[in-house]
Each structure stands twice: as structure tokens, then as C-alpha cells.
Amino acid sequence: MVSMRPHGFWVGAHARSVGLLLGVVAVVVSSSVVSAGDAAGQPADEPTTAAAATPLTDQTPVVPEPPLPDPSPRIRVSLARIAVMGAQASLAEQQTSAAKSRDDQARAQAASDRAAQVRTAAERQLDRARDQLRSTAVYAYMHTPGIDVVSALRGDSTAGGQERRLFAAAVDHHQQQFTDAQDTLERARADLDASRQALDRAQQAAADQDLVVASASSALADTQAESRIATAGEGRAAGSTSWQLSLAGPSVFSADELAQWYDAQGHGSRASVPIADVARSYIDHGNAEGIRGDMAFAQAIHETGWFANNDTITANNFAGIGHCDSCPAGFPFATADIGVLVQIQLLKSYAETDPTYNLPRAAPNVNGPRGCCQTWTELGGVWATDPNYGPLILGYYNDMLEWLVAQRSTET
């Protein structure tokens, strides 16, 4: 078994020191694992607890680093504000959709009304054609002696004589009008049925959209209530809050926003792929495994000194995985994407007692002490020996969230 510690740099308002942080990662791996590819098919070791740091050889008492302020209350406020903005945008979008549904319903109602009017007109036209045909037959019977009205109505050519031929032509004309009126009525009835079906669908869509609007309105009320609670909690005395950011959860950053934030900080990256690709790996893999990928990105910044250390350059390793106190480097991974996935899946093994992975294991032998840490704060002394590890990485995330709040505020 090999005990490891990640390492990194802290640069920012929360820094107590700048340089390499020594700690112990409570990660369990087989000593034969050197890459995700080599790990495939290897039996996974049982998880263990964090190993102790190397004992000091001198007798000088070491004064522990004073605890850093917990940024969790401010993070909660920022997350609540982002949630409120998202709920407001969602409600506005659903209200726009509801207005469109009502317009569609109104147009369908108008089309149905027009179809009903056309059908009524067609019925009247058919009645007139029938009356004209009937009147022609009656007139012929009364004024054309000897005519066989039935034969004439049938168009029988034996109805001879000029008067009879004229009558037959008149009958043909009115018969055609009658037939045309019947066809028009059938089409009008079909159009009316179709328009009424369209109206039913439009009415149902409008009713469904109203329910969505009601749900979005309720969600907004919930996020506003959480925002009030978070704001009240921020004003309490330090250490009085019980709220902590969980490892599990969705990212609030999109991949594009994450890359934009990083670029805005003015730091380069020595990763093997563009930072936009790294950011997308964190968001995509985090969402797939149910781990906060944007927060894992913040952890990587702390571990790698803004993606600039040797593990970044030579190993595609962004979390100090396998980098123990006496190890010159962490475990190497074949690609940056695999390195990100190993970190995400390792965090999942910390968060869950019996983790089920949604993506193929990138390094099956890399496991943490399962279920040890549900929050990022709890990683202190476990992922790394530094008791301030949680506040340090959360400090980065707090800065990220404050940028995101300002960014989305300008977009609305």
C-alpha cells in the first residue's frame, strides 16, 4: 500500500503562505499502478484511512497554522444568488413560452371559427343547389308535356326534342352544382374537424405551459427563501454555520464560463491541452458522476499552482494523486481527460460508501476511504494533512462564484 499526499499552491486573498503544501492523501492504490491504462484489470485494494505525516526529527515544537476563515457562508450566498438568477431566467422563459401558447391557442380558435363558418356556408350552398335542382325538375314536369323527368334527371339521351334537350342541359348544370356543393361541404367538415383537433392540442399545450410557469414560480420562491437564509447566515459569528458545500452536486459553471473565468485571471496553463478542453472535462465528467466538477477544478488550481507544476506537465495529474511526501511525482495518466476523470471518480469514492460509477473507471485501483467525506471541508486532514485544506480550496471557489455572479448579472 502506498500513502500519498497531493500538493499545490495557494495564490489569493485567503493565502497564509505561498509554496508547496505538504499533506497526505487518503487514497488507496496498488503499488503497481502507474497509469490509468496499467491499472485496468488490476484488483482494487481495500480503502484505508489517511497515513500520518513523516515524524519530525528535531525537538522544536511546531506551531500549527492558525485556522483560516471558513468561506462556506459566502459560498452559500453566492450559490443562492446564482440560483435566484437562474430561477428568474427560467420563469421569464416559461412565461414567454406560455404567452406563445396562448397566442397559438387564439390562432387555433380563430381557425376553428373560420372553418365552422365555411362549413355553414357550404351547407347553405348545398341546400341552394338541391332546391335549384328540385325546382328545375318541378318546372319541367309542369311545363314540358310528355317529358320523362326521371330519364331527364338521369341524363337519358332518349329524352328527344329541343325543349327536352335544353331541359336536360339545365338539369346537368344544376346536378353539377349540387355535386360541387356536396364536395365543398365534405371538405369544410374535414377542415373543421382538423381545426377543432388543433384547437384541443393548443388548449392542452397552454394548460401544460401554465403548470410549468407555476412550477417555475414556485422554484423562484424557494430560491429566494434560500437566498434570505444564506444571507442571514453570512452575518453570524465565524464558525456558527453548519452549512457546508457537498462534494456531490451539479456544477453551476458551464464549461465555457469556467474557461472564461480562468482566462480572466491572467494565468497561463501548462496542461497538455487548452484550458477550455480541461474545463469541459471537469464539467462533463463531474456532471456524469454527480460530483461538482467546477469545484474539482478549483481544487486542481490549488493542487497544481494554476496548472503549472510538474505533475501537470509530465503526468496529466491535477490533484496530486500518488504524490506522497517522499515521492518525486504523482501517478502519470495517459491524457488530460483521463487525469480529470480519475480525480472526479476518486472524489466520488470519498463521498460515497458504496459508489456506483456512471463512466468506465479510469483507474480502478485508485480509491479513497469510502464515505469518509461528504463535504469539501472534510477533506482537510484526509485528502491532505493540512487542516486548512478545505478553506484553501473553497477560497478559490468563492472567488470563482463571485465572478460568475457579476458575469451573469451583466447578461440579464
Commentary on this structure:
By secondary structure, this protein is mainly α. It has 2 domains: 1-33 and 241-412, no CATH class; 88-234, Orthogonal Bundle (Helix Hairpins), CATH 1.10.287. It is 57% helix and 0% strand. The chain contains 10 helices and no strands. The radius of gyration is 39 Å and the shape is elongated.
Spell out the key features of this protein.
412 residues, mainly alpha, Helix Hairpins, 2 domains, 10 helices
State the end-to-end CA separation: 53 Å
Count of the separate structural domains: 2
Shape: elongated
The secondary structure category is mainly alpha
The total of helices stands at 10
Write the element-wise H/E pattern from the N-terminal end onward: HHHHHHHHHH
Give the beta-strand count. Answer: 0
Please compute the radius of gyration using only Cα atoms: 39 Å
Task: Assign a percent range to the helix content.
Answer: 55-70%
Query: How much beta, percentage-wise?
Result: under 5%
Rounded mean pLDDT is 80
pLDDT < 50 runs, ≥5 residues: 1-57
> How many strands, what sense, and barrel or not for the largest sheet?
none
